Amino acid sequence: PGAEKTTDYWNEGARRRLESALALQPVTHRAKNIILFMGDGMGLPTVSAARIYQGQLAGGSGEDNVLAMETFPHVALAKTYSIDRQVPDSAGTGTAYLCGVKTNAKTLGLSGAAVYGKCHTAFGNEVDSILHRARLAGKSVGIVTTTRVQHASPGASYAHSVSRSWYADANMPKEALRDGCKDIAYQLVHNTDINVILGGGRMYMTPKETPDPEYPDDPAQSGIRKDGLDLISEWLSSKEVPGLAQRGAVPGHHRAGTSYKHLVCPCWQSAQYVWDKKGLDAVDDDSVSHLMGLFEPKDMKYELNRNTSTDPSIVDMTEKAIRILRKNPNGFFLFVEVDRLAHAGGRIDHGHHSGRAKQALMETIMLDQAVARAGKLTDPLDTLTVVTADHSHVFSFGGNTLRGNSIFGLAPKKAKDKRAYTSILYGNGPGYSVRDGGRPAASLPAAEDKDYRQQAAVPLDSETHGGEDVAVLAQGPMAHLFHGVQEQHYIAHVLAYAACLEPYAAEPGCRAPRRASHGPRCSPQPLLALLALCLASYLAGG
């Protein structure tokens, strides 16, 4: 604090940053790997408040703290509006940054010609995501989320749906089923060969009344599918060669660690399903090519509510995904979402929707920890890493608070109504309250509680999204293409260009594209002998 009072402190700090900027050179070769981190609802005020909170958790005043994502050298702003909304939702924005086109709110993986809720308008208007294009190019691909894997943000990477809410067939109208539309969970298993799927959403994958493995005595957590499909078994079976399933593994019995082996080039790989942290930790990264982990019936728990012995964190899941995906010599694409920031989406998003700022900011910190962990597991010379948000929230902090004031603390002076108020406030939401003819006074330590609802100006059951631009932070090959103020769908085009994916696969600097829908291609010449050798070894117990 004393040094800050001198001009040398500020001048020398600025000089160091200037020298660093002058030495910065863009990485202009193409990217082998791409990691896209998305903080659902992580607007700029959320990033700033999380920076302070993280710094205060470390014992500092917080304001001068630096998040891992903030060390990325290239920054842009993205305009988040959708075709029909000034203030967007997570489905329309997900289609923009993952598929490269803006579309209508509440629709996934479809152009703007599709109409929300009208099944027949989906056909012929599908658009492919970066994840799908990366898989076709022979890369391994994965999705990691703290919400259900069928949610709008991850759903935009593999699904084509005129309604973001069609999680399972039980959530769809009869007319849509009759017209041939498929639910999002079904599309998760059948649309794209996804190597790693980690998040929540078990109930949408299993037949109605199938007991949940974690909550077997709670019917509300059971499967809800009306079509009788067991999509977890279907997914596992699709990764095996008929007749070569691992002995003792019975399709339809989803024990943590159940494994089904299948034959691919050059020999054995395996698909595995887990539903708790113990099962995830037990997965052998080197022997698994496909991993599905569904850790809750719906969304995963907030970090501040998480059982650390049974539920993996976003950091745990991100690390496991990278360790599995990076084995592919062609590279990988990984989408990581924290949706606890708000309420109808990721957990950042969920926290804000419920007006619980502490939950939202801790989710943001966890996303940043996942960014830091990914940086240690990858090389910025061959991996393009991007951190962004789909939209913001009507969240703010102010009140002329003093340096070092708790981010969840009170403003130093009372309001015009002679009552204290917190620095953090919401423009609308469930935090609106009237007591004794006026606004209740905020107080400590209540305002520091993880479930405290900050006050809101307008009463709503759920706080709304914000419409301002969101940040895009990037490092690695072609990261310099993120600059200035861009439309949100530009993000997908930079990712595709950087990794030589369609429609940029033939651009200068790209090798001839390799297309593979189910993994690396191999020469057919030695396969018969190799198959015989592997089969003999398998039957002999090897």
Automatic annotation (TrEMBL):
What is the uppermost EC class here?
Answer: hydrolase
The protein's location, in the record's own words, is: Cell membrane
What cofactor requirement does the entry state? Mg(2+); Zn(2+)
Q: Where does Mg(2+) bind?
A: D40, H151, S153, E337
Keywords annotated in UniProt: Glycoprotein, GPI-anchor, Hydrolase, Lipoprotein, Magnesium, Membrane, Metal-binding, Zinc
Q: Which residues form the active site?
A: S90 (phosphoserine intermediate)
* Any one Gene Ontology molecular-function term assigned to this protein's record: metal ion binding
Q: Which reaction does it catalyse?
A: a phosphate monoester + H2O = an alcohol + phosphate
What does the note under cofactor report?
Answer: Binds 1 Mg(2+) ion. Binds 2 Zn(2+) ions.
Where do the annotations place Zn(2+) 1 binding? Answer: D349, H353
Which Enzyme Commission number(s) are listed? Answer: 3.1.3.1
What's the main place this protein lives? membrane
Q: Where does Zn(2+) 2 bind?
A: D40, D390, H391, H465
GO CC, alphabetical: plasma membrane; side of membrane
Pfam families, per this entry?
Answer: Alk_phosphatase (PF00245)
Q: How does it sit in the membrane?
A: Lipid-anchor; GPI-anchor
Q: Which InterPro entries match?
A: Alkaline_phosphatase (IPR001952), Alkaline_phosphatase_AS (IPR018299), Alkaline_phosphatase_core_sf (IPR017850)
Q: Which domain of life is it from?
A: Eukaryota
Q: Which family does it belong to?
A: Belongs to the alkaline phosphatase family.
UniProt-recorded name of the protein: Alkaline phosphatase
Which organism was this protein described from?
Nothoprocta ornata
Show the taxonomic lineage.
Eukaryota, Metazoa, Chordata, Craniata, Vertebrata
